[in-house]
Design brief:
By secondary structure, the protein is mostly helical. The chain has one domain. Helices cover 53% and strands 0% of the residues. It has five helices and no strands. The chain starts with a helix and ends with a helix. The N terminus is likely disordered. Pfam families: SLT. This is Transglycosylase SLT domain-containing protein. InterPro entries: Lysozyme-like_dom_sf, Transglycosylase_SLT_dom_1.
Length: 129
């Protein structure tokens, strides 16, 4: 019976005059942008230990959502920059481009804490970095 549902859905689409989109071209799952951002970060942070630290921070701060915004503080993006427009120093597309956010976050962690693992150590002690 599970195989009939797609046929019925296509029949309904045909009757209504809409165009069906093949599964291969359908909208990407919600997790796809997060996976893409994580893969991009891995290319930017070559050292496995440093990547693990960076990944833990981003996971805790934004769950790899480049549009994440903290309602109370206004922190924004993958690395929860506060204020978010700080990331404009890396690019005007800071609101929408995960790469810009990742570059800014890595630079911030290196400048302030010496490395992503330095930032993670601080995060573990204070629950912020």
């Amino acid at each position: 019976m599970g195989r009939k549902a797609p046929v019925l859905a296509l029949a309904a689409v045909a009757v209504l005059g809409a165009t069906a989109v093949p599964a291969a071209h359908a909208a990407t799952p919600a997790a796809a942008p997060a996976a893409k951002a994580k893969k991009l970060a891995k290319t930017m942070v070559k050292d496995d230990k440093q990547f693990a630290c960076f990944s833990k921070i981003v996971e805790h701060e934004s769950h790899w959502d480049h549009t994440a915004q903290n309602a109370s503080s206004g922190a924004y993006g993958l690395v929860q920059a506060l204020p978010g427009n700080k990331m404009a120093s890396e690019g005007a597309d800071w609101r929408t481009n995960p790469e810009t956010q990742l570059k800014w976050g890595l630079d911030y962690m290196k400048e302030r804490y010496g490395s992503p693992c330095g930032a993670w150590d601080h995060w573990q002690k204070n629950r912020w970095y």
